[in-house]
């Protein structure tokens, strides 16, 4: 059997575990030395924004503007191949069905001394943007997106590995119809439940349905990962990170790719994206079909990246 014919999908037990807990345990996609070599090249490529889908305007607010990290799979070849990788897409397909779009990617960095990340959930992503990023059909049983979070560097507890609370994907503790206020001076590095945390200029507690509710961190699972490993989780499962304690000078870097079936509307009725104190045009944006077919017309689809290179559909 050739590698193209290998099925990397989940076993029935793994599917059952996922729907009970909201995540798939970390699995290897790249060997550590392979991931290290890829990142050395990609790191340089990220500095060249000539073909970036959102252009230079995303840098207007400096390091606080995470829009600069968005959707680089649309102009960097390795990242485009990564979001289509069969070892990832087959597993997502096991959970979400045969037809899949990748609609977003993003880097998540933690440098030595950085605060942790707030506990949060996302169903529509409207809390940050002020309008939904995604809309499921009204009769959909589940909302949100599947996120594949890849460790580009080692991610340990001391360096702010991903943390989740299993089983919380079936109950939203936050109301995304509320609007978060971008205020880095006020919101970054606040002490929350004894831990320095923030959310890139936002305080996610502002979306809580119950202002007195506190996440039960005793139930958290800390997903330590070697570079080249990936974890898949529902965006609606409670997740966060602890601070990077600075015991090593290496940053922790994760790269997330997000997937939905094509019936989901992406950036509905919007031609701009407003977040993190900045705004960018969606003129060049498009979701990509990573598996199966897209039989809908409501989403803008890209068959090639910004350099004209085709994406590899499973």
From TrEMBL:
InterPro entries cross-referenced by the UniProt entry: Chlorin_enz, Phytyl_CoA_dOase-like
Q: Which organism is it from?
A: Massilia cavernae
Cofactor annotation: Fe(2+)
Indicate what this protein is called per its UniProt record: Chlorinating enzyme
Q: Which domain of life is it from?
A: Bacteria
- Which GO molecular function, any one, fits this protein according to its record? iron ion binding
């Amino acid at each position: 059997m050739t590698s193209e014919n290998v099925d990397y999908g989940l076993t029935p037990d793994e599917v059952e575990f996922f729907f009970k807990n909201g995540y798939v345990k970390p699995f290897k996609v790249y060997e550590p030395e392979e991931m290290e070599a890829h990142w050395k090249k990609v790191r340089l490529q990220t500095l060249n924004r000539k073909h970036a889908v959102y252009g230079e305007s995303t840098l207007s607010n400096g390091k606080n503007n995470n829009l600069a990290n968005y959707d680089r799979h649309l102009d960097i070849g390795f990242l485009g191949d990564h979001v289509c990788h069969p070892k990832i897409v087959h597993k997502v397909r096991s959970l979400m069905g045969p037809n899949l779009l990748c609609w977003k990617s993003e880097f998540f960095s933690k440098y030595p001394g950085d605060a942790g990340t707030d506990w949060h959930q996302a169903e529509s992503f409207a809390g940050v943007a002020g309008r939904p990023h995604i809309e499921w059909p009204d009769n959909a049983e589940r909302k949100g997106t599947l996120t594949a979070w890849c460790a580009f560097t080692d991610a340990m507890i001391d360096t702010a590995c991903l943390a989740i609370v299993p089983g919380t994907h079936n109950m939203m503790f936050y109301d995304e119809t509320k609007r978060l206020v971008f205020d880095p001076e006020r919101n970054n590095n606040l002490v929350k439940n004894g831990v320095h945390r923030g959310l890139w200029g936002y305080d996610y507690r502002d979306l809580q349905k119950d202002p007195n509710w506190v996440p039960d961190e005793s139930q958290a699972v800390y997903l330590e990962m070697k570079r080249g490993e990936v974890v898949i989780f529902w965006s609606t499962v409670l997740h966060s990170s602890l601070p990077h304690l600075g015991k090593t000078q290496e940053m922790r870097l994760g790269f997330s790719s997000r997937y939905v079936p094509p019936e989901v509307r992406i950036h509905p009725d919007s031609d701009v994206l407003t977040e993190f104190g900045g705004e960018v045009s969606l003129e060049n944006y498009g979701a990509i079909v990573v598996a199966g077919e897209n039989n809908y017309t409501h989403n803008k689809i890209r068959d090639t990246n910004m350099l004209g290179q085709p994406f590899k559909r499973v």
